[in-house]
């Protein structure tokens, strides 16, 4: 059950929504968790991707999330010698569906400037995360790396769900943020097809084909929730 931490402020309601918001409802909390979906991050990485957050507030939120069991802190040994934060197994299971639902809600509000997404993160969210189809992922156990422009996102697909990366990636997908978003939200089928053709895939061909199917990056695939709207094609 979520709520291992006693929040400093709460709704004092015995309701699952209120109890969930006691843990996740503070400002910046969900955006911190969003950043950790792409893999373990240093404190400085989080600060760079959340430019509006005060450093003491980030430290406070990370502590709260650790106490809630949603985030793990790990001190890596020499020669790396750095501290990183990552989603815990509980975080992957409980938080990821929430982030996906909110992202679906906000997708139509995504501000595109001359057809380009605002960030590499938007490319990852719109182009990869929201297209994940757990029904197609049954039996797949693979670590993936998504290289979006100059930013890297690592995660695994295991037992039909997304999870923390385990070891080196078996499949690497390389794309621009603009192409990932255009493959989903392009104004025409021709633009969606052209964007998808520019996305590259490295790894064992059979595994690559499965990953492409799971993330609706293969021919004639339509992401979950976008039937009739997004016709990504190889």
- Quaternary structure: single chain
Mean pLDDT score: 86
Query: In which range does the helix fraction lie?
Result: 25-40%
Point out poorly predicted stretches: 1-6, 226-234
What Rg do the Cα atoms give? 18 Å
Euclidean distance between termini CA atoms: 42 Å
Question: What is the 3D shape?
Answer: globular
Number of strands: 8
Helix tally equals 9
The strand line-up of the biggest sheet is 6-5-4-7-8
SSE succession = HHEHHEEHHEEEEHHEH
Describe it:
The structure is a single chain. The protein is an alpha+beta fold and 234 residues long. Helices cover 39% and strands 17% of the residues. The protein contains nine helices and eight strands. Strands 6-5-4-7-8 form a five-stranded mixed sheet. It has a three-stranded antiparallel sheet with strand order 1-3-2. α6 packs parallel to α7 and α7 runs antiparallel to α8.
């Amino acid at each position: 059950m979520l709520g291992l931490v006693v929040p400093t402020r709460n709704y004092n309601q015995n309701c699952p929504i209120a109890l969930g918001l006691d843990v996740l409802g503070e400002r910046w909390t969900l955006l911190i968790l969003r950043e950790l979906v792409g893999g373990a991050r240093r404190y400085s990485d989080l600060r760079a991707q959340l430019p509006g957050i005060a450093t003491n507030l980030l430290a406070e939120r990370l502590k709260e999330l650790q106490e809630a069991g949603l985030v793990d802190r790990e001190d890596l040994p020499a020669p790396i010698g750095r501290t990183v934060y990552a989603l815990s197994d509980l975080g992957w299971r409980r938080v990821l569906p929430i982030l996906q639902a909110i992202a679906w809600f906000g997708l139509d509000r995504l501000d595109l400037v001359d057809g380009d997404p605002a960030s590499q993160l938007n490319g990852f969210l719109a182009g990869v995360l929201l297209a994940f189809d757990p029904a197609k992922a049954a039996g797949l156990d693979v670590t993936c790396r998504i290289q979006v422009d100059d930013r890297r996102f690592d995660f695994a697909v295991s037992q039909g769900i997304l999870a923390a990366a385990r070891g080196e990636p078996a499949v690497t997908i390389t794309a621009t943020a603009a192409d990932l978003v255009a493959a989903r939200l392009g104004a025409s089928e021709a633009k969606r097809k052209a964007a998808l053709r520019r996305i590259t895939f490295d790894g064992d061909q059979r595994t690559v084909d499965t990953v492409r199917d799971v993330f609706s990056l293969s021919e004639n695939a339509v992401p979950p929730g976008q039937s009739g709207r997004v016709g990504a094609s190889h």
